[in-house]
Amino acid sequence: MSAGFVPPPYPYDRLDACKALADAHPGGAVDLSIGTPVDPPPPAVVAAMAASDAERGYPPSIGTPALRDAVARWMHRRLGVTVPAADVAVCIGTKEFVATLPQWLHLRTPDRDTILYPEVAYPSYEMGAILAGCRPVPVRVDERWRIDLSSIDPDDAARALCLWVNTPGNPAGGLDDLDAAVAWGRAHGVPVFSDECYVEFTWAGERRTILRNGTEGVVAVHSLSKRSNFAGGRVGFYAGDRELVEYLREVRKHVGMMVPGPVQAGAVVALDDDAHVEAQRRTYHARLELGRTVLAALGVEAPMPEGGFYLWVPAPGGDAWALTERLAREAGALVSPGEFYGAAGAGHVRVAMVQPDDRLRLMAERVGVRVPDGA
Prior knowledge:
Largest sheet: 7 strands, mixed
Order of helices and strands: HEHHEHEHEHEHEEHEHHHEHEEEH
Strand content: 5-15%
Number of domains: 2
CATH topology of the largest domain: Aspartate Aminotransferase, domain 2
Number of helices: 13
Shape: globular
Distance between the termini: 61 Å
CATH architecture of the largest domain: 3-Layer(aba) Sandwich
Strand order of the largest sheet: 2-8-7-6-5-3-4
């Protein structure tokens, strides 16, 4: 009898030894290994959930009209695109959307079996393909961590169910050429899905979305987890190509994928408020600069990302695990070796600058960097 599928170890479980080193510091580990928001969502969002009166009935899996309208307003206001609410649907956070998309696309186009995604990327693109019995095929990235479309093998393109781009990228913070991605997808008849969850934290130039090139053959995927410190709400959305969105909306109804009603009410308030996002942008930018200062005190250069709230740090000598251990031992900081995000990331570490300011000051003081209160 064959063993069947055996889930691989969860990457972050491999950090246990380094966590023990970091925990040995007075005050314990400063966990910068996972991008979990720690700042509070706007109070009005919490109040809207409490007063929603949406607890009893089943919420619409495609999203309430109020939420889909709020998405359309947000995309017009912040990204400069007009997308009808009819071409928008919600999801239970974007990780589940990424991880389940391949099986829905394979059902739709059973003669194709390949998921294309950046070779340095969030693991769920690859795992989604594996869980659907499809071929995960990483696509080379260039020296600026942008997807290199010219490297895609024509045979893989002919078998592709979709191409994923992620911009600003996780972990490296690169900004893909979305115009080129749209052109490639349309030329090859391959849907392009653009994971834009960090778009509000774009540092190099303006915020951008793949939908600025029209919606034919493209879908943008967004989340309130990072934008509004709402990861516990598990609410995201996707918008774009009408036929693709309609297909995914209908198939997902059969699985009961529903964002809770009170959360949808809170999401409307979050999307309509930009002030808290601007404040969060300033907070994350300051934390990134502090992280760079801490690493510089250890003789390690960390470039500012083009987007996102992660530092993607070249490890001295290319030894990411040695740098991970050193940061745990000397700074009490827990970070992620780059190999968690693909073999091509093995010479880097990812540092998620998400901890509260007092925890980051503690880390800084451990390496001799003094940070004034309120800085």
